[in-house]
Design brief:
single chain; alpha/beta; six-stranded mixed sheet; six-stranded antiparallel beta barrel; 35% helix; 27% strand; elongated
């Protein structure tokens, strides 16, 4: 057996996809038993299994079980996959394999399964003999394998292709990513400071239902912890961050208030990293009356997004979950909110007061300005003002529609060029790829979407549908 070196799973703080998949490869063939006598193929089959593991390595860190022929080898593979905490198992048969062999691995593991029904050749040539058949006839055993998965209640994703087919490899990569994101959610911890904004029904959720059906654990984080850390941040760290941020952004506000906002941002980052939270949300107004802080934290929550810790405003847990999903796929994500319909441009304005991910801003355009919405005992804290960079975009809302039923609501379109208005907020115009804006508004609302959503660059609807399937929840593409 061999495996690629295992790299760190998290790149927290680097503003990129947080998880590198760990992929267990289960490559099988029946070569020798009381009746089959093709043991002479073992060396070639072992080499072929390693070649397949190497190929799959482009999608993540591979834990390769070697060539698996018998049940005890499948049991050993299961133990290794469990010990290495794989995110997904890719199963492939070079030749017919008795169904009890993969069943032993699948019964002893819980990671999602991708069945890659792949072979090296595109057809059997006229001069090809049985040795070629033995390395290219997995279709003989795959139906037995998949039927066993169905009979044991194990979900799986199926991909059929040649090994060297780019389209087939892309489908395999998408299946691996979907399984990895789904499993990532099962281990995620999301900090909730305070409570969801009062009276907002679409922010109300059942934390245990979210844990059971979608995955993340919601962990209360006391506002006191942030307020205490606020006072513990070294002045030298504040000064250095103020200088670096002034070099990076146009800062248009009182120096003392900007410094206070920077201290708040550093306090948030310190506590979130210390407790290894995967995402963050807060009732932003909770610190307005606290004399130790006394400002809104919009600048700090935007910085969290920028450094790779998804953050949503107003205690919106579901939006934080949606951002985490989109960051896993796209590397950066933000919160947006429906504002004004632009019937003339067949679009709708998205924004949110003060909060947004500056990593997605039009280059060179982001400003740091004081809030015009929320006044604390120390005045108006900092937030961002910019237009999001134009280009393809995907929106995702994670919603509950009652009776413990959860749903992804997904939409693809583009952000349009949009001169930012002086409203102390990130902003953009969203146009759907095909629907007139009135029809998009109708369909978005009819699908149960809330007033907040996550957004990320690129088109990800197909991947999001696959993630929802891996989670066993609904997906609606608007």
């Amino acid at each position: 057996m061999s495996s690629k070196s295992i790299q760190p799973r998290s790149t927290l703080g680097e503003g990129s996809r947080a998880t590198r998949p760990r992929i267990g490869t289960l490559v099988m063939a029946l070569l020798e038993d009381d009746y089959n006598k093709t043991g002479h193929m073992r060396e070639a089959a072992t080499a072929a299994a390693q070649d397949i593991a190497n190929l799959i390595g482009r999608f993540g860190d591979v834990i390769h079980a070697g060539l698996v022929e018998e049940e005890h080898q499948a049991a050993a593979a299961a133990r290794r996959f469990n010990a290495e905490d794989v995110d997904v198992i890719v199963a492939l048969e070079l030749a017919y394999t008795k169904g009890i062999v993969p069943a032993r691995c699948f019964i002893d593991t819980s990671a999602p399964v991708v069945v890659w029904n792949a072979q090296k050749i595109s057809r059997l040539g006229e001069s090809d003999g049985f040795d070629v058949v033995m390395l290219n006839s997995g279709m003989a055993g795959i139906p037995e394998l998949t039927a066993g998965l169905i009979r044991t209640g194990r979900d799986f994703t199926m991909v059929t292709s040649r090994l060297d087919d780019p389209a087939g490899q892309a489908k395999l990569g998408e299946a691996i990513t979907a399984a990895t994101v789904a499993r990532r959610l099962r281990t995620a911890r999301i900090a909730l400071v305070g409570h969801p904004f009062e009276g907002m029904t679409d922010l109300m959720f059942d934390g245990l239902s979210l844990r059971q059906e979608v995955g993340p654990t919601i962990w209360p984080l006391e506002p006191e912890k942030i307020a205490v850390r606020f006072g513990e941040i070294a002045q030298s760290e504040v000064d250095a961050t103020v200088a670096s941020e002034r070099a990076k952004y146009t800062v248009d506000m009182e120096p003392a208030l900007f410094e206070r906002s920077v201290r708040m941002a550093l306090a948030l980052e310190s506590v979130v990293k210390e407790h290894e939270f995967d995402a963050f949300t807060a009732f932003d107004q909770v610190w307005l009356t606290d004399p130790r802080v006394g400002i809104i934290p919009s600048y700090g929550t935007g910085r969290l997004c920028e450094i790779g810790i998804p953050a949503s405003p107003e205690g919106d847990v579901n939006c934080a979950v949606a951002q985490l999903v989109m960051q896993e796929l796209a590397g950066q994500a933000t919160t947006v909110e429906n504002y004004v319909i632009d019937f003339e441009n067949n679009a709708v304005m998205f924004s949110h007061d003060g909060h947004g991910n500056p990593a997605l801003a039009t280059p060179g355009e982001a400003k740091v300005k004081h809030s015009i919405y929320y006044h604390g005992v120390h005045g108006f804290g900092a937030g961002f003002e910019f237009a999001y960079e134009p280009g393809p975009i995907t929106n995702l809302a994670v919603v509950t529609v009652g009776e413990g039923v959860w749903r992804f609501v997904i939409s693809e379109g583009e952000f349009l060029p949009f001169p930012p208005r002086a409203i102390s907020a990130p902003q953009t115009l969203f146009r759907h790829d095909s629907l007139p804006i009135d029809e998009w508004c109708n369909a978005w609302c009819e699908a149960g979407a809330p007033h907040h959503m996550a957004a990320a660059r690129g088109h990800w609807a197909g991947q999001l549908v696959a993630v929802a399937r891996a989670l066993g929840i609904e997906a609606v593409v608007v």
